[in-house]
Amino acid sequence: MRILLTLLFSALVTRAADPSFDWNSETIHCGNLVYGNNQTSVCFADMFLTDAGKETGLKISPRFARIELAKDDVFNTPLCIFTGEGNFTLKDSERANLRRYLENGGFVLASPGCSNSDWNGGFRREIALALPGYELKQIPMEHALFSTVKKIKSLSVKGRTTYLQGIFVNGRLALVYSPEGLNNAGNAKGCCCCGGAEIKEAREVNVNAVAYALLH
Known about the structure:
The protein has 5 helices and 9 strands; from the N terminus they run H-E-H-E-E-H-E-H-E-E-E-E-E-H. By secondary structure, the chain is an alpha/beta fold.
């Protein structure tokens, strides 16, 4: 763990020197994106943020920061969740910021609330428009995302094996996407998966994602 902490602090210092980012604040904040017609997540459990803080020793806020994708605030956070329900359309400014964020070191966790097919359709369309030249690819289980903090050998949904998809920018994993669910909704107050298919290991994946976002 001492080695992980050293790497994390080194990555933070390096990234803070990038004018696109400002991570010199005492607390690291992760964002809950607001996009389209004021859409955002209300059922993405934030408990993994506390887990990540304990595992890394870094001061990570236990609550998401509400961040509008169209504004420059998005560039002050290492990781954002991108989720919701129902179809949506991004504004041109949101597409531009999403691309700039991912190409300059930002990291996005994306999945629909309750495995919502309309949201999945909107996401795939908007990603293609915002990131021409990139494509979603299956993330191999040997990838560092599955071992940075927690060792994850496989992913399961309702008893069957599944995989995550991602977008790589210059070899770096910049976006993780599950059409099923990474919400860990069972640990979100007043929420449930409502019959959707949620990945059993979602919480562990999300903890790893925070550490991976800071390291790469």
